[in-house]
Design brief:
Length: 740
């Protein structure tokens, strides 16, 4: 049974057992989810098509390029069938929901053992690892909504129990449906991993809105409208029996109002994780909930916003001059908030304090900028400029709590764009020559001067910046393309000349050729070979030019046998014709060529008559001894090379992971450094070409040279992910280590 027929069988088998009636609210969710997933999957397939086309465009060989084009064609042909199969499978999950354990316990990666993995092929193992990582990340990011949805679905489906809950929208089920659907695609593991990566990026990472919509529909239908959970996932209780807000696990919604309003602070998985860990820290420190302390007055959001408005943004920057001069600005936001709260003392004996949500937000902004100020991947001028925005970003976060949950938040997008655009600056010296610096500087200046609490300013600035970057990137791309083509041509010519010279030197070194013949090969025919090498992809004449050299040397050899002499008679006319034709093609001097051809005919005639025009070099005892010494020397050199190759092997693997467009930083021996991005990999010379932000070449090195640079600590690969995402990941890791 082939893969396609297997899929039909599974589909028919599932549909045959799906005759049970589906509750009305589940039907509504199913239709919404299936349609939404279909739209997201289309985006994923479009991205796969773009990725494969880019890989094919930058392929290092014809075979590699054909492989990507074939994969692209295979996916395009079967795409609609895969999309339909995926949607049908998801729809069937709502009719016959698979049972699952608790959200945090159902981890396929944790269930796999060394024994089971040893039975899996390398390709299957790579795919399973990618799937496990995708599922684990989704469960972490959407922990709150998934738990709520699982609890509500388990109320809707009568066969579900506390020990065996159900959730048709669990990430592991959706990923399983997709992997089943793509079994019909006859593509290799690398293309399958690209497909899974884009599915993760466009579908799994955007499940949040579908999970929120499903929860909203069930809440409207009266299914556990007031959801509470504390500590252990899966434990929930009615609001009438719930503890006071703040006494349970931080991050749980306080009422149905929060759930229906869909506040992104509570739906954000990352923020939920961080709040839970911050709540655990408060509990370990013995800090009581704000609302339960009669001596504490919790400051409202409006009062907090008013206090923040009293902070002049100009205080966060130098009085005059360039904003990026000096060191990054450090602001102790926690101390600053204590000073503001002291102003809010109402004189009633109660101490003003923040509620847990606002306190967590302020702590998170503080930790966010601690990461930014310590992030080596940021260029120095951009790091200083972004440090000036701590108070404006704090005001944004307090007013609009979706900053941490929405990747498309205007302020978040602007910060990411500023960091990404300035990654190519090596030092502050470059900013004076770059229009980009003025643009980024003006954006920070306008935020400090104009921001009054309206987040629309960030949207306007981001749109203007994106338009500017589009123009600048278009210019840089043209320069980079010319640089890349020029370098490819230069390196290919260099490689061709070196190949021709080495080959001819090797061949003529074995025989004592007459001076005229040596001149023909080294000063005339070498040009023909050089041109043939460059055009070999089209004309395929390189081997023919090498054969002319071999034939010429053979014809000048003494031949005693009749068969060899007969062959000599047959070869020489064609040899002379090929030599003259090739030299004519490279526009060799005609009078000089006639003289050379005359000498050649004379030498060939002498060789045929006397068999003595050339003698094979005889090895003398001295030459043998020299060769033995050379062999010993060569063996020592080879041993040294083997040791060096072993030492850099792990670094070579890292070099091979660098993709076109990735940024790196080189450190020179004198302590200076510069940043550049990989523009081209030229296989003919095993050469990596790097350019600066303007598209101009700055350095070229071989793979081995780069590995040595990395081993010595003089080459660093720069992370290019979104700044805020990297910062949040770092914050989660830091808090997890503190609460472990």
């Amino acid at each position: 049974m082939n893969k396609q027929s297997g899929i039909h069988y599974l589909r028919e088998h599932r549909e045959a057992g799906s005759n049970k009636p589906v509750p009305a609210e589940v039907t509504r969710i199913r239709d919404t989810v299936v349609a939404g997933l279909g739209d997201l999957l289309q985006g994923a397939f479009d991205a796969v098509d773009d990725s494969l086309f880019e890989l094919a465009n930058n392929a290092r060989s014809n075979n590699e390029q054909n492989r990507y084009f074939e994969a692209m064609r295979e996916i395009r042909i079967k795409r609609k069938g895969v999309e339909r199969h995926f949607q049908n499978t998801v729809a069937q999950y709502f009719a016959n929901p698979p049972h699952a354990g608790a959200v945090q316990d159902n981890n396929p990666a944790a269930q796999a053992s060394a024994d089971t993995l040893s039975l899996v092929g390398n390709d299957d193992l790579e795919e399973q690892v990618a799937l496990n990582a995708m599922i684990t990340k989704a469960k972490a990011h959407f922990q709150g909504p998934l738990l709520q949805l699982q609890t509500r679905f388990s109320q809707v489906y009568p066969e579900a129990t506390d020990e065996s809950p159900v959730n048709p929208m669990a990430p592991e089920h959706l990923c399983s449906a997709f992997t089943e659907a793509i079994q019909a695609l006859e593509i290799q593991i690398r293309e399958r991993l690209i497909l899974l990566k884009q599915f993760d990026r466009y579908v799994v990472s955007n499940l949040g809105m579908l999970l929120d919509e499903a929860n909203r529909i069930l809440i409207q239908a009266g299914v556990i409208p007031n959801f509470r959970y504390h500590g252990k996932a899966g434990h929930q209780q009615d609001s009438s029996k719930a503890q006071a807000p703040g006494t349970g696990t931080a991050g749980a919604p306080d009422s149905a109002t929060h759930a229906t309003a869909g506040e992104s602070v509570h739906s954000s998985a990352v923020f939920n994780q961080i709040r839970q860990m911050l709540a655990l820290q408060r509990a370990n420190a013995g800090i009581p909930p704000r609302s339960s302390d009669p001596n504490v007055r919790v400051v409202s959001d409006s009062e907090l916003a008013s206090l923040l408005n009293s902070l002049p943004l100009a205080d966060a920057r130098p009085n005059q001059g360039d904003l990026s001069n000096g060191e990054p600005l450090t602001v102790d936001l926690r101390q600053l908030m204590q000073q503001l709260l002291a102003r809010a003392d109402a004189g009633d004996g109660r101490k003003p304090a923040l509620n847990e949500v606002d306190e967590d937000l302020i702590n998170l902004v503080s930790m966010l900028f601690e990461f930014i100020l310590d992030d080596y991947n940021l260029s120095a001028p951009v790091q200083v400029l972004i440090s000036r925005l701590q108070i404006p970003i704090l005001k944004v976060v307090i007013r609009d709590k979706s900053f941490f949950s929405q990747a498309t938040h205007p302020a978040r997008r602007l910060l990411n764009s500023l960091a990404r655009a300035g990654i190519g600056w090596s030092s502050s010296d470059e900013k004076t020559r770059d229009k980009l610096y003025n643009q980024i500087h003006n954006i920070v200046q306008r935020i400090l001067n104009e921001f009054d609490g309206d987040v629309a300013l960030f949207e306007t600035l981001n749109q203007e910046f994106e338009k500017f970057l589009e123009r600048e990137n278009r210019k840089a791309a043209l320069v980079e393309q010319r640089t890349r083509e020029s370098e490819r041509g230069r390196i290919k010519s260099q490689t061709a000349q070196q190949t021709v010279d080495n080959l001819l030197k090797e061949k003529v070194a074995r025989y004592k050729l007459p001076a005229s013949i040596h001149d023909i090969l080294m000063n005339g025919w070498s040009r023909v070979m050089f041109l043939a090498y460059l055009r070999d992809d089209v004309e395929h004449r390189w081997h023919a030019t090498v054969k002319v050299v071999d034939d010429l040397i053979w014809c000048l050899h003494p031949h005693q046998q009749d068969e060899e002499r007969d062959q000599w008679v047959r070869v020489v006319p064609g040899l002379l014709k090929a030599l003259r034709s090739g030299l004519d093609e490279v526009s060799y001097n005609s009078s000089r060529m006639d003289e050379m051809m005359g000498h050649l005919k004379h030498e060939l005639a002498e060789a045929f008559r006397t068999n003595a025009a050339i003698e094979a070099r005889q090895d003398s005892s001295e030459e043998v001894e020299e060769e033995e010494i050379s062999t010993l020397h060569q063996t020592a050199v080879e041993r040294q090379q083997e040791l060096e190759e072993a030492a850099i092997s792990e670094y070579v693997a890292q070099i091979d992971s660098i993709e076109i467009g990735n940024w790196v930083e080189f450190r020179l021996v004198n302590g200076a450094n510069f940043r550049c991005k990989l523009s081209a990999i030229i296989d003919e010379a095993d050469c990596f070409v790097f350019v600066n932000r303007m598209g101009l070449k700055v350095i070229e090195k071989t793979r081995v040279q780069l590995a040595h640079e990395m081993r010595r600590g003089r080459l660093t690969l720069l992370e290019q992910g979104a700044l805020i995402d990297r910062a949040l990941d770092a914050v989660v890791g830091t808090l997890r280590s503190k609460t472990a």
